[in-house]
Amino acid sequence: MPCIVYSKDNTTSRNIANSIMNIVEFEEKEKVNGLRTFKHRNIELLELDSGILACDFIDEIIKTDFFVFVCSHRSEKGIPSLTAHPEGNWANEAKLGGKPKSLGFASPLEMRSVLLMLKKNNWAGFPVTYEATHHGPLLKTPSFFVEVGGNEEILKSAKHSEIVAKSVIESILENDADGGASVVVGFGCLHYPDKFTRLALEKRYAFSHIMPKYYIDELDMVSQAVTRSSIKPEKAVIEWKGIKSEQRAKLIDELNNVGLDYEKV
After folding, report:
1. Is 2-173 assigned to CATH 3.40.1360.10?
2. Across the chain, what does the average pLDDT equal?
3. Picking from 33-42, 174-183, 186-195, which range would have the lowest pLDDT averaged per residue?
4. Which of 114, 165, 210, 263 sits between 20 and 30 A of 255, alpha carbons compared?
5. Is the full-model pTM beyond 0.90?
6. How far apart are CA 116 and CA 198, in angstroms?
7. SS3 of residue 183 by DSSP
């Protein structure tokens, strides 16, 4: 049973939730810890009173197979996008929720399913992309974010939020998490991993965590990157030219230590 989570404090998040409730009928249930909850068949919808990044407590009050967080994605340049990513902090800081050097549990098949639906429903022609693993919350339950990115006009647009709403609910209702995809973990990309996204959209790769190249020296995080996933990755995918040769050698040694083969792209 999945749980979709939104924040009433975020306009985009609220718009996505409203669109979801327009697509299928949800019944409001009893509050949980003072928070509004809704249900449609086996799908729960949870409303947060405050921001999503600090809701580390929710898997203590809601038991579910996985959480889907829906909200806005803000880039400095306001570039339009439709994104999906898992949560966690690679380094010894946690400026946006979670804990330092701690990854959440990725949900690779479900996340890829939504990514495919974003591509299918993308009437706006926005870039559809994974993002590298970043920020909180830190949960023990598998989870991922799905976001609308862009300028203020786009982030306030109910029409654009509907793309995410439709993609999330269709992926759940159609049970479209393809078990035939290869679950992998990615290393060495930029924040927007173009090559990894193409592998997911075109070649049936389902990424769990994605470590960008600027954290590639955090070798003590490789074990978490491999193990903190609802399904253990079959192999690592390394963006070869994005990493210096000496960094690659150390990364490969660490992958050998955790018993994971690799592929270079």
Report:
1. no
2. 96
3. 174-183
4. 114
5. yes
6. 11
7. strand
